[in-house]
Write a sequence for this structure.
């Protein structure tokens, strides 16, 4: 009797467990307890080319991460492999064949970047086609539609500060002759050979007016104010001893081609 009492609980447990024997709940899963088995069962499967034993492929050693880079340093930042010179500027200021003359390339690396030709946002009430000269900032703007303008760097001499206001570009000329004013001839007798009575200086690469000249009139009268090119590219962005509004020769050619007839000009 006592034996049956001891056996019956065990028999009941066996009977209860029998239907669940297919679940193997009595067989422990040791995968979680075995790191090696866990890695084997959960590791991703990668493509293995035929004939390549992945066990014999040597891993690539870790490369040190560079802390600094010395590629093409500029005064502003590191360009990380980008060219220091803007290729667009190099094309704009390269050697240019114009009429019977060849304008030499301008060393743009020696010109301050803000004085190189570029299209900028420019809000103004002036209509497109107007020229605006900002004598304080040494910029000339050719107003375009849509709140844009083509901006050029300029150099200014004494004559460049002598007149301000609104006028009209009454006349423009390619490869002009240079005729120094009487006041300059009296101050510098060495330019007398180019005076008006002697016919002025022939056009050319050394002519102070450069490749183009634009003559400003107001109320039908010549203001003696000029926008012109210059072979002296180093004067751009600076105040010089003489001259009106000087532009790089490649820039003055570009402006000349953009200007409509009788364009308005504002000098401030």
């Amino acid at each position: 009797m006592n034996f049956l009492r001891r056996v019956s609980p065990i028999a009941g447990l066996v009977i209860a467990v029998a239907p669940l024997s297919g679940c193997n709940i009595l067989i422990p899963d040791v995968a979680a307890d075995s790191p090696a088995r866990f890695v084997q069962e959960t590791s991703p499967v990668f493509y293995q080319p035929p004939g390549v034993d992945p066990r014999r492929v040597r891993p690539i050693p870790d490369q040190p991460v560079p802390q600094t880079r010395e590629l093409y340093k500029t005064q502003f930042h590191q360009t990380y492999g980008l060219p220091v010179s803007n290729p667009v500027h190099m094309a704009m200021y390269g050697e240019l064949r114009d009429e019977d003359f060849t304008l030499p390339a301008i060393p743009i690396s020696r010109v301050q970047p803000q004085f190189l030709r570029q299209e900028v946002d420019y809000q103004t009430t002036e209509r497109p086609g107007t020229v605006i000269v900002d004598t304080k900032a040494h910029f000339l703007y050719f107003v375009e539609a849509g709140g844009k303008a083509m901006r050029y760097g300029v150099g200014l001499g004494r004559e460049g500060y002598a007149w301000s206001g609104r006028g009209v570009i009454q006349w423009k000329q390619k490869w002009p002759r240079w005729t120094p004013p009487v006041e300059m001839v009296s101050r510098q007798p060495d330019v007398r050979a180019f005076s008006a009575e002697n016919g002025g200086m022939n056009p050319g690469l050394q002519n102070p007016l450069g490749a183009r000249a634009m003559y400003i009139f107001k109320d039908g009268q010549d203001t003696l104010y000029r926008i012109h090119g210059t072979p002296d590219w180093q004067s751009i962005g600076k105040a010089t001893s003489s001259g009106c509004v000087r532009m790089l020769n490649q820039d003055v050619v570009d402006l000349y081609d953009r200007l409509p007839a009788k364009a308005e000009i504002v000098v401030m």
The chain has one domain: 43-54+86-267.
